[in-house]
Design goal:
The protein is mainly beta. Helices cover 10% and strands 41% of the residues. It contains one helix and six strands.
Length: 125
Amino acid sequence: MGLRAQAALDCRAILEDDSGFAWPFTLTSPAGLGVQHKGFTTDVGQTIDPDTGQAVAGRQASATVALASLAAMPVAVADAASKPWLVTYASITGTVATWKVIEVLPDRAVGIVVLLLEAYHASAP
């Protein structure tokens, strides 16, 4: 087995290890099909640099999953009228949030996909 194949196996084992980094989340397609996954999720609140006034971010979130775990590759949907791919997970305190996938970054060298997220609020019917 080559180093890249071993790296892909290692990444999947780390991302799906319940005793380590694994965190459950649901990935929901635009058709409404939700699939449970394990991976690494983030939800980081950041602030404005008082010296420069530059945003050193705001609120950034992501979910990382093993490529081999995905039945379908999510797609970031720019059209606000179209239903997006969604990621739902609970914070460490148990607060559940739903996020819209805004960018999909597959790394086929090591077999992972990073989903960049933004807060999602479904409009009322």
